[in-house]
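Per your request, structure below.
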């Protein structure tokens, strides 16, 4: 993203070991188009779901994400 000119990284004034990341003007200009793209994708993806199905999907997705982030990788040979 830095090579594409979307952000810059610079050492923090308070601690030179810390890198601070800032969006460039080019990066900020991409925020709204990207947000609109994700909104359109969400609307298209959920178009045929009932409210109950959409709610169930979101609960399931969060449960999967929680399981992935809170557990150790499975050991070989275990299911």
């Amino acid at each position: 993203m830095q090579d594409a000119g979307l952000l810059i990284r610079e050492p923090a004034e308070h601690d030179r070991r810390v890198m601070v990341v800032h969006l460039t003007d080019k990066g900020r200009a991409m925020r709204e188009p990207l947000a609109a793209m994700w909104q359109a994708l969400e609307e298209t993806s959920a178009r045929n779901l009932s409210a109950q199905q959409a709610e169930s999907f979101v609960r399931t997705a969060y449960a999967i994400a929680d399981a992935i982030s809170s557990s150790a990788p499975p050991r070989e040979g275990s299911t």
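The chain has a mean pLDDT of 90.

Regards,
D.
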